[in-house]
Amino acid sequence: MASKLVPSDPAKVMVIRDVVPSTIATFSTPFWRFGRIKVGGRGTAVRMQSGGVAVFSPTALTDDVKAKVAGMGEVKYITAMDMEHHIFIGPWHEAFPNAKVIGPEGLPEKRKQQNNEAVPFASIFKAKQIPSVDAEFDTEFDYEYVYGHINKELVFLHKPTKTLIEADLIFNLPATEQFSKTGESATTGILTKIFGALQKTSGMAQKRLIWYGTSGGDKAGFHQSMAKINGWDFDRIIPCHGDVIETGGKGIFQHLMEWHIAAAKTS
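RE: above sequence
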């Protein structure tokens, strides 16, 4: 199934970009939801002030990716950001066996059931428990386990750069950067057009989709998670699907999560 989701030769079509010079790099590739809808995929690497590197939602580990990460520092953390974003953590763990692997509850069992590579998880986030990775990581990042999200989403704030890093919490389609080296438009295809219309950050469509759909794992829990994230200081949002929101991300988040933030105040 993975062959229908990701490109056969990711090195040819991956865009490696410094979002924040010497600190944050992104690895953007084509990705087809259900093998047909162009949503794009993105991994993010953050060089921490300690010199270690934290990788979020890792994509294909090409030679160029290895070289880029090697120039940033020692990979110390590898995060599968929800139940869906774990395809490449096996190869990354093999390449960086000393890195701590982070993920949500249920993912180790899912990977075993799917006969994925065996990966030891150092930190597993669980609902209604105060999470902690370690002192080095906790100094650099705030994070929230959005267990109310249907995919059991992990969301991170890189405090020094005011950057929110997320997977399926917010989409920012079309996936222009992620399809920019494929020679084809990121908006072609009827299913892509329909899904793209539902995942715009402006208007009401994505706002309603989150309220009626993606928050369905635990509505009350989702409300509280959005209220917590709303208390963070961020401007940039790096999503896995669609283009990076370079500035104004807090306002976009507040628009899309307005009903959840309001509901948290009354619960």
